[in-house]
Here is the input.
Amino acid sequence: MLTLSHFTAVLIFALFSSLVFALTLRETPREQVRYGLYCFACFLGGPILAGWALYLLNPR
Amino acid sequence: MNDMANKSASETRALMVAGLGWLVPGLGYVLLRRWGRGALVFVAVVTMFWLGLKLQGQLYGTGVSDVLDALGLVGDVCNGALYFVTRSLGAGVGNPSVVFSDYGTKFLIASGLLNLLAAADVRDIALGQKA
Here is the structure.
């Protein structure tokens, strides 16, 4: 059975989701790379920011 | 009249290619000779689906009990042949006692939705609405 850390799971999800988003929602390779990196940063940064926000709301 | 017939034939062809793209991830792009996109979509969808199964994720069956389960079933069916073959082999039953089972279930749904997005893109390309 495979086990992943929470961060690795988010990382894998962000990688593949941003890849498909970039391929389907942008046309030129340059736009695809830029949009893919943007989506990857959002998918990866969002949960990290949410985690810190929850920690700051309830630090115990 | 002839224009309408051509438009209808073009729409039918686009839907068929999109349908094949839904059935086998990336196949729609390959049929349109977008080899790179086809390969990348295939790798992304199949890898996420495989990871979902390895994480003991659950594929929803027809016996869904509430709205969220029904939405999960829709997401799973969007995986196309991967869903039907896996279900027919008796895999994807899930294991709620495993912590990562829930992640696996979400991976299975996410891979289906990515496949649906790709199929819709294939339809747009086949219709000439996108390069």
